[in-house]
Write a structure and sequence with these properties.
Blueprint: E1 8-11, H1 13-17, H2 27-39, E2 44-49, H3 62-67, E3 76-81, H4 84-91, E4 97-103, H5 106-113, H6 117-133, E5 137-143, H7 156-167, E6 173-178, H8 185-199, E7 204-208, H9 215-224, E8 229-232, H10 252-261, H11 270-284, H12 292-295
Parallel strand pairs: 1-2, 1-8, 2-3, 3-4, 4-5, 5-6, 6-7, 7-8
């Protein structure tokens, strides 16, 4: 297979990974985690979501977290927004990348953003104008690209229409999100073939969940199609609070190990990421979904972050 020589992994653990957790991680600890991930070689990190704190309490400190991050370390920090209000909050911070995330299905759009799909097109316009008008780089993601657990699923035509609309704004990256973990290799390849042809030089990435144990299998399908951008979460943390039974993202360590086995460069120091997964595992009092971080408990790198969270 003609795999890419290098892939860009966007670490979404500080956002997607933590949003399902009931126990609040203090802002200082979030910042320490993000800085630790940057030191482990992650060049792109999603640090927060600008959503209503009553719906996702873990993200109530989004502005405070962004404000404490270093601005000159070369890392592409991003924040996620689901509606125009969220984008307006995001542009009040210095975060350089904003992810505008919209659902392809009506049910998910109503649950996640409080908007029916019929109104999402106007909302997209307002969100894009606010983010791009503020000079930010925009990642646009389409939730439930490969299926939806609630309501009528979106067909490929709907997803392609949404992708075409988003690309028309001159976005900097398009992401197909497997929010409910329903993707399979045939679905991934079929949709990517159409979307990548439409996207031209705009990078297309995959945001995969491992709800049905297909995460890394779908990574392989993406690689075979030429995808070189993947979202991951340390230890396999994560899930959508608005999707019943949602499991975590594909684990950062496991994904990086797969890339290493294929001689694909990531720039990630796996043991350093793993020690932060172990630290979070202790903090939340349970074993995380990832596999590789458990095998590295005695690695010398773990001494660098051995203290527990408070």
């Amino acid at each position: 297979m003609n795999y890419p020589e290098r892939v860009v992994i966007t670490e979404v653990g500080p956002r997607d990974g933590l949003q399902m957790e009931v126990r609040t991680v203090p802002a200082d600890e979030k910042v320490a985690l993000i800085e630790g991930l940057a030191q482990a070689g992650l060049q792109a990190i999603q640090v927060a979501s600008f959503v209503h704190p009553s719906k996702v309490p873990q993200m109530a400190d989004a502005e405070a977290v962004v404000d404490r991050l270093p601005r000159d370390d070369g890392v592409r920090y991003s924040g996620l927004a689901l509606n125009h209000k969220g984008v307006l909050r995001a542009v009040q911070t210095w975060v350089p990348w904003i992810e505008i995330s919209v659902a392809a299905s009506d049910a998910q759009s109503r649950i996640n953003a409080g908007l029916p799909i019929s109104r999402i097109w106007d909302e997209i316009d307002k969100m894009m104008n606010a983010a791009l008008g503020a000079g930010r780089q925009v990642r646009a993601s389409i939730q439930c690209s490969f299926g939806c657990a609630e309501g009528e699923p979106a067909d490929d035509a709907q997803i392609l229409r949404m992708a075409e609309t988003l690309l028309g704004y001159g976005i900097h990256q398009l992401v197909l999100a497997d929010t409910t973990g329903m993707a399979t290799p045939p679905k991934v390849k079929r949709l990517l073939k159409e979307v990548m042809s439409m996207a031209g030089r705009t990078p297309v990435g995959l945001h995969l969940h491992d709800t049905r144990g297909m995460g890394l299998v779908n990574v392989m399908a993406g690689l075979e199609m030429g995808v070189s951008h993947f979202d991951t979460s340390l230890g396999g943390l994560g899930g959508c609070p608005f999707v019943k039974g949602a499991a975590g993202n594909i684990p950062t360590e496991d994904t990086a190990y797969l890339m290493d086995s294929l001689s694909i460069q990531t720039g990630i120091e796996i043991p350093k990421v793993a020690c932060w997964s172990q630290r979070l595992s202790r903090f939340f009092g349970r074993t995380l979904q990832g596999k590789l971080y458990r095998l590295l408990s005695n690695h010398p790198a773990n001494g660098a972050c051995s203290p527990n969270f408070n």
